[in-house]
Write a structure and sequence with these properties.
transferase, Aminopeptidase, Nonspecific Lipid-transfer Protein, Chain A, Acetyltransf_17, GNAT family N-acetyltransferase, binds acetyl coenzyme *A, eight-stranded mixed β-sheet, about 450 residues, acyltransferase, alpha+beta, NAcTrfase_Eis
């Protein structure tokens, strides 16, 4: 949605407005009324506590740094005694950040977040109206791809989003310390929180540039890693400790943030709240440090890569257990030719994709040609390229296929794509032969 625009819907008394977060004009130490109302509505929708008024300006600051646009839906016909009419009955937020799609450049991606519709207003099409207008506008503005992380898996398939990456929730038994097969390299230091806050975006950028599937992060991540904000709001989290890893030249190339879950928790457990490495070595050495902390029996981390090198580094791989795997990114192709052209591939091949899209944004026939891992894609006429392997799929299935986390053969077995053996072979060679995508950014 664009900045600062509003539309009235006179048929049902609903008023839609989009604006950036803002401070009160008369008192810049406060959020403005519409921003405060928007935060109130989001907290209601996600069953979070109300944000304390004095914490709102920090949240406004973070949202402005992220370049977020907030959409609010107001009901001008709420009955007498109802909650403040300046609190919207529905919310929707957007921002743009870079996704590593394996191509020569990161792909700016339209991110959708903070979607709530008040329980008294649910299932009358408010989400559908917001998302239809927003995705159309995002496509018109030239963005090829949209993404979100979903509260429930059943909501967004109908809007053309497909689950595209997952992370593993892992647990490590560290009693007596973890032993690694490779010798230690570089060094680790407990970080100065203020300095870490400045370093986190730099380290994450290096991680993003080398990690297929990684997505740029909002400002809150650096604040949380430094314990300045907690996971849920802008209150400090005084339990968080952070470490930096330095390479052999003394340059920081990774960090981890963690906290004890308390002595009442048996066995004594430390939860890793964030861990970002800009090299394989940094990843290993951060875990070596975490596995060596005295008085800790167990480590947990809910954002580990599904293809995790960690168990392969340990002399006792059974210390490492995957407790659950959860989807993270859901991708929505807005412009198939641009999205397919931006991605990096493996090998050579050509395939024709017939994309169905109930929202019509990505519908059409496209020829993808890949030479030496570099792809070009363009719309094709119906009868063209009759000799090229062909696949029929929905926009949501293309979103799932896009980063190769699932193979075309698996999607075909699930009935989500229709293709002959030749087309499935080409798709799997091009899309799934490389590294598994890893995205640890939630938004
Ligand atoms: C990216 C994010 O922010 S994810 C967070 C999503 N938000 C939440 O989980 C907070 C709690 N839930 C809510 O606020 C609301 O129920 C929402 C936002 C999920 C749905 O809003 P609504 O306005 O009720 O949705 P709307 O009426 O537009 O429904 C559109 C379609 O989605 C379906 N739908 C909506 N919510 C759900 C759901 N939770 N599960 C399954 N289907 C759903 C509807 O049945 C409807 O289907 P149809 O058009 O194919 O018949």
């Amino acid at each position: 949605m664009g900045t600062d625009h509003s539309t009235d819907s006179t048929t049902d008394g609903l008023r839609f407005a989009s604006f950036p977060a803002g401070y009160d004009a008369a008192d810049p130490a406060k959020a403005d009324e519409r921003t405060a109302g928007w935060f109130d509505a989001v907290n209601l929708g996600f069953h979070e506590d109300r944000t304390k008024e004095e914490r709102l300006p920090a949240q406004v600051d973070g949202y402005l740094r992220d370049g977020r646009i907030l959409t609010a839906v107001y009901d001008d016909r709420l009955p007498e005694y109802a909650w403040n009419p300046a609190v919207p009955v529905a919310t929707y937020g957007t921002m743009v950040n870079d996704l590593n799609v394996g191509g020569s450049e990161l792909l700016p991606t339209h991110l959708v977040t903070a979607v709530t519709v008040r329980p008294t207003h649910r299932r009358r099409g408010i989400l559908r109206r917001m998302i239809t207008a927003d995705l159309t506008r995002a496509k018109d503005s030239g963005l090829a791809l949209a993404a979100l992380t979903a509260s429930e898996a059943t909501i967004y398939g109908r809007f053309g989003f497909g689950a595209a990456t997952s992370t593993a929730g892992v647990e490590l038994d560290t009693r007596g310390g973890l032993e690694f097969t490779a010798p230690p390299r570089g060094s680790i230091a407990i970080a100065d929180a203020d300095k870490l806050r400045g370093l986190v975006p730099e380290i994450f950028r290096a991680h993003l540039e080398r990690t297929f599937g990684a997505l740029g992060r909002q400002y809150a991540y650096a604040m949380r890693a430094a314990g300045k904000w907690s996971g849920e709001n802008t209150e400090p989290d005084t339990a968080v400790r952070s470490v930096l890893r330095y390479n052999a030249d003394g340059v920081p190339d990774g960090y981890a943030a963690y906290k004890s879950l308390g002595w009442q928790n048996e066995p004594h457990t430390v939860k890793i709240t964030d861990l970002v490495a800009a090299s394989d070595e940094a990843y290993r050495e951060l875990w070596r440090y975490l596995g060596s902390i005295d008085l800790v029996d167990r480590l947990t981390f809910s954002e580990a890569p599904v293809e995790d090198p960690l168990p392969w580094m340990l002399t006792d791989r059974r210390r490492y257990k995957v407790k659950h795997v959860e989807d993270v990114l859901w991708l929505r192709i807005l412009d198939p030719a641009a999205a397919l052209g931006a991605r990096g591939y493996f090998g050579d091949g050509a395939v024709v994709l017939d994309v169905e899209d109930p929202m019509a944004l990505a519908a059409g026939t496209f020829l993808l040609e890949v030479r030496g891992g570099v792809g070009t894609a363009r719309p094709a006429a119906a009868g063209e390229h009759a000799d090229t392997p062909r696949v029929q799929l929905t926009a949501a299935a293309l979103g799932s296929l896009y980063l190769g986390a699932v193979s075309a053969r698996t999607l075909a077995a699930a009935g989500s794509v229709q293709a002959g053996d030749a087309a499935l072979g080409v798709l799997d060679e091009l899309f799934s032969a490389g590294p598994a995508p890893y995205c640890s950014t939630h938004f």
